[in-house]
Design brief:
about 80 residues; mainly alpha; about 65% helix; rod-shaped
């Protein structure tokens, strides 16, 4: 039994990975801002702000990567070069 992967198969796998990443690491738009503050936060210490800023940047990078592989997956599914 041989298993062959075509480009469209690789594309759908990339799309599934991207959707999972977006579901887990989507940047929370209503609670976390780029400067590390949260909405309605009063008296946050510097450590919490630094952790929130790192979290925001990490989530933003993963989100952009997921959008990129989602686009690559769609292009692979189209197979424009055949």
């Amino acid at each position: 039994m041989s298993v062959t992967l075509q480009l469209s198969d690789i594309g759908i796998i990339l799309d599934l990975i991207a959707v999972i990443l977006l579901a887990k690491y989507s940047v929370p738009t209503n609670t976390l801002s780029p400067d590390g503050s949260e909405t309605l936060s009063i008296g946050m210490d510097e450590v919490t702000i630094a952790l929130n800023k790192d979290k925001y940047l990490r989530y933003k990078k993963v989100t952009m990567f997921a959008y990129f592989i989602l686009g690559v997956g769609f292009v692979l599914q189209l197979q424009l070069w055949q």
